[in-house]
Amino acid sequence: MALVGSTAACALVFSSCGAPQSAAPAQQTPTGSQPKPTAVQSTPAKAATPAVPAPGPARPATPGAAAAATPPVAAASPTVGVTAAPPAAPGSANVAPKTPPKNFALNGSFEDGEAAGMANLWWSDDAKAARSTKAASGKYSMLIHPDTGSKKKKAKDLHFLRAVVRNAEPLLGKEVEVKAKVLVKPTKEIPGPLALNVLYTANGKDGAIATVFQGSDDWTEVKATGKIPADADPKSLLIAISVRPSAQEPVLIDDVSLTIK
After folding, report:
1. What's the predicted TM-score (pTM) here?
2. Which end of the chain is more exposed for a tag (fewer CB within 10 A), N or C?
3. pLDDT by residue (tens digit) across 1-56?
4. Does residue 62 belong to any structural domain of this protein?
5. How many percent of the chain have pLDDT more than 70?
6. Number of domains present in the structure of the chain
7. Peptide bond connecting 87 to the previous residue in cis, omega within 30 degrees of 0
8. d(CA 53, CA 59)
9. Residue 193, strand partner residues
10. Is the per-residue pLDDT at 167 higher than 70?
């Protein structure tokens, strides 16, 4: 905001009090005659008109003289109720927040389902699986017991927890990413105790996008990426979490997601 200022013009005013009075000249009287006293009538001095100083440095004030200061011109008042918007920073245009990618894994947080049973929209292949309150986020996760076998029965290679990918047409021909948070005791056995998969069928052949996890002592995000064939059957898409016998303890799964990259 520009400041409006004014240069105050100062005028020096001299008081008539104390200023010397000019005397009228005495009249000449012929010799021999008595001079008649002439009354001198003093005329009151008029106040001096303040002089407007020329541009330039102000003259010093005369001692004893009263200086009358001209009041300064008031600055223009800002408009009440109007606030100037600050200039926008480069690149700070109003941009709509980015919409998070759609998650095609329904009930991937396992919050819906029976209290101590299977989560809605998921099922298992004869594995002992149930919801658990030990969760990575929210209230629930899924717990899967591995098949360790017995003296009479050989352990199965895999136990699956599966979910159908519904309305999967937008995924066809696209690069996708499947993720899950996993808690499973680590092992040195190869392959590891858990695999995360997206299964599909294209032209009568089965395919998969998969990754294997060796385990960790804390919740760990596991993910796999790959392309779904454009000619895949959209009704064949499944999310499958497989647990191997090398998992000597139950496995916890939470926050499953399937999104387009």
Report:
1. 0.61
2. N
3. 343 444 343 333 333 444 444 444 444 444 444 544 444 454 555 555 555 555 55
4. no
5. 58
6. 1
7. no
8. 9
9. none
10. yes
What CATH number does the domain containing 139 carry?
Answer: 2.60.120.260
- Residue 108 in any domain: the answer is no
Residue 239 lies in a domain: yes
Host domain of residue 182: 122-260
Cβ(61)–Cβ(12) under 8 Å?
yes
**CA-atom Rg of the chain in angstroms:** 50
Residue 253 near residue 144, CB atoms below 8 Å: yes
What is d(CA 19, CA 14) in angstroms, rounded to the nearest whole number? 9
Q: What gap in Å lies between CA 120 and CA 126, rounded to an integer?
A: 16
What is the average pLDDT score of the chain? 75
Whole-number Cα distances in Å, 114 to 49, 120, 140, 165, 250: 103, 8, 11, 21, 19
